[in-house]
Predict the structure.
Amino acid sequence: MSTVEPPKAFEDVVLFHLPDVTDPGAFTSHTPLGSLGLDSMGMIALMASLENAFDFTFPEEDVTTAAFYSADSLWSVVSRLIRHDG
């Protein structure tokens, strides 16, 4: 996983797309996002929100269920893409 801690803006974007999170304080970065209500349509919406918030584009090969498994796995991909694009 990424060694750089994700910014609060990342967590805010992810939480916005998790309909089953009623207590954001109980959210953990390793909880499977699917268990928190993220479905395939939500995954696409989350991807678009992250692209807008962090000014990058997800390459097709990074749009996988493994990448969107948890906030940790997603931040690993996003942080790599931000470094690459930046």
Observations:
- DSSP finds three helices and no strands in the chain.
- The two ends are 20 Å apart (CA to CA).
- The CA atoms of residues 25 and 46 lie 20 Å apart.
- Helices lie at 8-16, 40-54, 71-85.
